[in-house]
Write a structure and sequence with these properties.
Layout (H helix, E strand, L loop, with lengths): L4 H10 L6 H6 L2 E5 L4 E6 L12 H21 L3 E12 L7 E11 L3 E9 L5 E13 L4
Antiparallel strand pairs: 1-2, 2-4, 3-6, 4-5, 5-6
Length: about 140
């Protein structure tokens, strides 16, 4: 997402909010996005730790990216932006190939906070990670 305020306002108006450079480097693709559900996927290859397993931090990047998109969509109706303030993750099992898919669903959507549950699964539908993200919804700074 651009940090230029006018660009943010334009993205909100046009519905073209972008994911940002980190998500691009990680290969994250969003396949569905609304204030009720965000779905995206990420390749394991290129996002592994030294033992060839999906890096836990990569799962956190996927989770925060998806939850932040949903929070931003929700926040835009109030003229606000979303910033992550807390994330946790439990890594259930490893992934070593293919893609993982994350599904983010809201737990709470308020005027100042949004909290999301994110479940990440491998290509067989096996749960790899569960995460919870809370975002603060802040006013857009004046330009």
């Amino acid at each position: 997402m651009s940090t230029d305020i006018e660009s943010l306002r334009t993205q909100f108006d046009e519905g073209t909010i972008t994911m940002g450079a980190l998500a691009d480097r990680m290969g994250i693709e969003v396949t569905e996005a609304s204030a009720d559900r965000v779905v995206g996927r990420m390749p394991v290859q290129g996002n592994e730790q030294p033992f060839g397993l999906l890096h836990g931090g990569a799962s956190c990047v996927l989770a925060e990216s998806l939850g932040s998109i949903g929070s931003t969509i929700h926040a835009s109706q109030f003229g606000r932006v979303a910033v992550g303030i807390e994330i946790n993750a439990t890594h259930h099992r490893s992934a070593t190939e293919g893609h993982v898919t994350g599904v983010a669903t809201p737990v709470h959507l308020g005027r100042t906070l949004a909290t999301w549950d994110i479940t990440i699964t491998d290509e067989n539908g096996t749960k790899v990670c569960t995460s919870r993200l809370t975002c603060m919804l802040r006013e857009l700074p004046s330009s």
